[in-house]
Design a protein that fits this description.
The chain is mainly α. It has one domain (about 5-35). About 75% of the residues lie in helices and about 0% in strands. Helix 1 packs antiparallel against helix 2. The protein is flat.
Length: about 35
């Protein structure tokens, strides 16, 4: 499963802001589903 670079940028941003992993997963999955 390949993810666009912006997904990792969003993930890094959330990590810096201290968001929990669940929110990261939602963002990644939501963005991934949008590609289908």
């Amino acid at each position: 499963m390949s993810l666009p670079d912006h997904i990792f940028q969003i993930k890094d941003f959330l990590v810096e802001k201290g968001f929990p992993d669940k929110i990261e997963a939602v963002v990644i999955l939501g963005s991934g589903l949008g590609d289908f």
